[in-house]
Amino acid sequence: xxxxxxxxxxxxxxxxxxxxxxxxxxxxxxxxxxxxxxxxxxxxxxxxxxxxxxxxxxxxxxxxxxxxxxxxxxxxxxxxxxxxxxxxxxxxxxxxxxxxxxxxxxxxxxxxxxxxxxxxxxxxxxxxxxxxxxxxxxxxxxxxxxxxxxxxxxxxxxxxxxxxxxxxxxxxxxxxxxxxxxxxxxxxxxxxxxxxxxxxxxxxxxxxxxxxxxxxxxxxxxxxxxxxxxxxxxxxxxxxxxxxxxxxxxxxxxxxxxxxxxxxxxxxxxxxxxxxxxxxxxxxxxxxxxxxxxxxxxxxxxxxxxxxxxxxxxxxxxxxxxxxxxxxxxxxxxxxxxxxxxxxxxxxxxxxxxxxxxxxxxxxxxxxxxxxxxxxxxxxxxxxxxxxxxxxxxxxxxxxxxxxxxxxxxxxxxxxxxxxxxxxxxxxxxxxxxxxxxxxxxxxxxxxxxxxxxxxxxxxxxxxxxxxxxxxxxxxxxxxxxxxxxxxxxxxxxxxxxxxxxxxxxxxxxxxxxxxxxxxxxxxxxxxxxxxxxxxxx
Length: 538
Prior knowledge:
alpha/beta; 22 helices; Jelly Rolls; Rossmann fold; globular; 44% helix; five-stranded antiparallel sheet; 538 residues; 4 domains; five-stranded mixed sheet; single chain
């Protein structure tokens, strides 16, 4: 059976934009395709110019491609990642929506919107980008009309679903895998559903999702098996049958290959319902090789943990804006009936009182103890003191090795770590930054900077006076900070900094650099080595 392309006939959809006014705020061409997870305060339209990638909006993930556009709403979080060596260019368009009337109807274009790919769409983006970068006010004004024309073209070219094209059919087979994982599934069966040949289906699935279809079947089955394993009466044979394997020994081999430990060892570790009530506690548990039953997970505020452990942690607590939804978290924990809760002690009194009703709770002091002491105390509470000692021993070896490598590369260079929040600048805004750079790795800070002080506020003029060789920079991923960072890069004061002239400014993300836990500290060392050795000076 050969793949055939079907002629696509536009089917128009009625989208009511009556009484709405639109104002273009900005348009950015992201050439490397990556966008760090950030909180947005305006409407955001994302259009792919070329390539493929993955968009995360709040907790939902979408494949990025040219046959769909995506619109996010104010208050959502979004970020874009690539798969392996994929390339991606995309336009990020921020705009406002205003209403003529007192009643505000719902904005009709939200989330993923399938469209018929048209050269005109990207052409309008190219023109708008050119207009908005013009030095002539009348040309920048013209960008507004190009934006309205773009909205018109999007609405005129919306695809009605379901479609018969192979890409949409491919997505339907992926959804079929997710809902029929406990049944026998073959490539031939999936290819028939997509109405394409098995060979073309195999190639298209791998190209679209970065893994083979059968590897995805295994991944889905193993993830469901992990969920069943937390039940106290679960038996391995029953779990294997529940996720589509008739042979429990074959299931065990597949599970160990996928997870790294046997199902029996995994179940033993998971039967105790431990709650990591804050992300630093999750970082301490992972260093102890313990995966909790519940923990705060979010694509922005706990990006790494969400990506790596969301399928391993059954109960996802909200991490939105750092524990803003604590009341709903406690309600979820009451229903889950955990065995023990471990938390940092930086909670409101009313929150602590509510937590007492959930399970026995242990607080780890965030201020009185450093991360090493916090790790050892957590280990003692959970009977994993030996694991804590082993982790610290391995970390000290890692630091000794990293210190030697950095000394070879940096020589006598001085280094600063700083953040931009809104329009202010701070040196070493988090404890972990100071501990890793200036205590463990013993890097040199410039004259006039006290490396033992955290979160020191400075001006741009003071920064210029330090004459620092290298800067690690963390920009808060929210609109005011990002806008200030964009304008700062064009200022003469910034451009004349020694580190900027040498092209030695390294961008670092809040995760892991703002988290204070053993696991995050270890990741900081790895991240620094990657930044320095992947960035060569002339």
